[in-house]
Amino acid sequence: MEQILHLFLTILNLLLIVGCCVVFTNAVEHLGKAYKLNEGAVGSILAAVGTALPETIVPLVAIIGAYVAGTDVEAGKEIGIGAILGAPFLLSTLAMFVTGAAVIVFSKMKKRQPEMNANYTVMFRDLKFFFVSYTLAIVAAFIPVQPVRYIIAAGLICYYLFYVFRTINCSHAASCEHSEIDDLLCSRIFNCYNIFVIWFQAIISIAALIVFSHFFVEQIKFFAYVLSINPLILSLILAPIATELPEKFNSVLWVSQSKDTLALGNITGAMVFQSCIPTAIGILLTPWIFGEESLVNIGLVYISTIIIFLDLYKDKKFCPKMLLYCGAFYLVYIVYIVSDIIANTVKPIGIG
């Protein structure tokens, strides 16, 4: 009965996160319009950072919360590392797959064109920044000198600030025209529309996302204990699904409106953020040592991202079908994890 209750709470958290996505997506579009930013900056900075906050909070909650509450610190660190590594993996595989599938589905429903009209320059820039920052974060795990690791962590934070500066600077130089957007949801409640109401809606939706992400971490701990599974494995798969839902559902919403630069910038911008800020937290607060499960995860991130990068470099545009292929790498990892769990659970009976 207790397991059923926790399963219900997990599903409820996911539904609430989806609802928050709708509210946040609405607010971030109005923020971009208010500050005269083009869709590239809105997707890669405002939307990506806002929706990436939950997965940044998850490792902090898991690690620091374990110290404060006096619970299993090692489990907290495992969940933290899993959540940090799982986010770029899920973005470069499942999130891309969902976006590509959404384009195909909506085009079949005659709600949009089958071709994607994302800004090539914005996407290409994001992926190049991601390759550099992600590689630095991974290399840090193989450097035994702690002060050098701290320097890399600080460098990743500075690198992200440089990325934000470049993105916003390019945004002001580009066209700031926006597609038609829906009315601000909070303006209906307060019967007024100004920058304070827009920020209020954005902050409230982000706060709700953080709270529901915290509850989801607790569910991961519960099921890891009940199923006797390494919490790192569960967090590599389950934590990103909850915390990355904003990116995926925001992108689906924007794809349905043919706002492809917002949709894909939301994902690629989040990839840059995830490879800089959460990894810096991991380097500073955890042992930052990778086991076999983590290394396979990292390898699949590189393969998936390189495929997207080369396709983008060749055709100067995103191909929905190519995005579908990225989902195969997520499936490969799930099969690998399940096989590993079964192999470690079913022990051969010795003779003698």
CATH class: Mainly Alpha
The largest pleated sheet is described as: none
- Overall number of domains: 1
CATH topology descriptor: A middle domain of Talin 1
Number of strands: 0
- Strand residue content: under 5%
Q: Tell me, briefly, the overall form.
A: globular
Describe this structure in words.
With about 350 residues, the protein is mainly alpha-helical. The protein has a single domain, classed as A middle domain of Talin 1. Helix content is about 80%, strand content about 0%. The chain contains 12 helices and no strands. The chain is globular, with a radius of gyration of 20 Å.
Summary of the model, kept short:
By secondary structure, the protein is mostly helical. It has twelve helices and no strands.
Write the SSE topology:
Elements: H1 2-34, H2 39-69, H3 73-108, H4 120-140, H5 146-173, H6 185-190, H7 195-227, H8 231-243, H9 245-256, H10 260-285, H11 292-315, H12 320-345
Short descriptors:
352 residues; mainly alpha; A middle domain of Talin 1; 12 helices; 0% strand; globular
